[in-house]
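The passage that follows is intended for readers who have already worked through the single-chain material. We present the inputs for a multi-component assembly, then the predicted structure in tokenized form, and finally a short commentary. You are encouraged to pause after the input and sketch how you expect the pieces to fit together before reading on.
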Amino acid sequence: MEKLSDPGLIQYIYDTVEKTAFYQLVGLQLQSIAKGEAVFTLQTDERHTNPASLIHGGIIMAMADAAMGNAIRSLGVMGVTVDCSTAFLAAAPVGSLLEARGRVLKQGKNMIFAEAYVYSGEQLVGHCKASFFNTGPLQY
Amino acid sequence: MEKLSDPGLIQYIYDTVEKTAFYQLVGLQLQSIAKGEAVFTLQTDERHTNPASLIHGGIIMAMADAAMGNAIRSLGVMGVTVDCSTAFLAAAPVGSLLEARGRVLKQGKNMIFAEAYVYSGEQLVGHCKASFFNTGPLQY
Amino acid sequence: MEKLSDPGLIQYIYDTVEKTAFYQLVGLQLQSIAKGEAVFTLQTDERHTNPASLIHGGIIMAMADAAMGNAIRSLGVMGVTVDCSTAFLAAAPVGSLLEARGRVLKQGKNMIFAEAYVYSGEQLVGHCKASFFNTGPLQY
Amino acid sequence: MEKLSDPGLIQYIYDTVEKTAFYQLVGLQLQSIAKGEAVFTLQTDERHTNPASLIHGGIIMAMADAAMGNAIRSLGVMGVTVDCSTAFLAAAPVGSLLEARGRVLKQGKNMIFAEAYVYSGEQLVGHCKASFFNTGPLQY
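Having made your guess, compare it with the prediction:
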């Protein structure tokens, strides 16, 4: 992990994450940010469950998307999700602490590619890849 | 659309949807159910937005997954999402009424395949395909 | 299906398909082209099989990509595949005639979205969605 | 990479790869196999091109599928591809040597999950994730 050296960018990313209504609704927290990488966590509870009392897949997908989108923003650019594909490797029990680790694979002029792995404790529960359209430098 | 003829199954589906905590958190509503098809709606508001005040992609993915998962349940079986891939064709503005239409493409002994289209008014904003593991008959 | 009215474009598409080395290697044939739609066929034989003597999944993915890419070209623009996701609904036996039907879902300034269904006779064997980067007008 | 210790399994995998007609048609070579991992290579030439004289995306998808499918077989089981999603990060020029590295992420009783990265020299050109149905022990 290469540390981010621009304190203004770090501040901007944490500020906008905190202001993102959907993250607040779900309870997503930005755990760490590095160059081309971001980690989100979620302390799951009853609000996040499906009828089987397991964590709903929509939570896994949203966390992965957040981790990848902010991994992209760590490079000083903005990416709009074009396509996102998620595999569900195992069920996550309610009460588990989820961690989504996103990483940029390639930053192109037009397209940006990323992947994310979502863990429930030590167990891999989600594997995600996505492509983003590069809308240009962040204004901060 | 072929009507569902089993009132017990219809009741069971509506009941479990209402009890699904994550659907309640987001605000998803089951609009209609037919044989192999389900439609969910969401009246979007500020809670569903990203920093650009557009609807967060996680909402689109969760709606599509709900529409496909319940389209499967309309066949009297339960499917666990294995893989879900979503394309984001256009941004949905806050305040828009979203509608996700899910449809089963094939019900196999082991795997079930489905697709969903998500609309914001007349505009197609999400296109989703997913595969599910068939865990067997619903107990209702 | 809306007919293509530009004979020069039709001719150009058939010509380039015939000159595409990979299509020739596999044996893909452009069956028909309409506005935003294209159909490819393949008479399968032993060359297309996996060790189980079924048609290899790579054939299904290549046909779907061809059908979507040429559905895009029917609109007078060129699309470069960014992401392609394929579900395999059933196995196709050797000797079957495969048909891939591609359709453009949305033509945007930057991104183009498409889907394809691949049939072996009456049976749906492949379901594909893909996103393409719009590289601009075809030069013909 | 953990070495495979069963010489009979190694021999079986190499033998069946050599007998796979579609691999021979395209020119795919099994480069190495380890526990849960497999590497395929392809020396590209004019036969693999699209009209722009770049390597056709179908080649990238087929290589990735081969690398993942044989990574699974290295575990002594057979997996049938259920869903395969590929991102195309960069174009591969004709004449390039392609290398697809597949890896199993999780081997479950019913489902097996894998990923693959395809390189043209040092450059990442393809990123793939896929889910497979576990059809049980290999008979060899």
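Commentary: Chain D touches chain C at residues 16, 19-22, 25-26, 46-51, 56-59, 61-62, 65-66, 80-88, 91 (CB under 8 Å). The beta strands of chain D are 29-34, 37-43, 77-88, 97-107, 111-120, 123-137. How closely did your sketch match?
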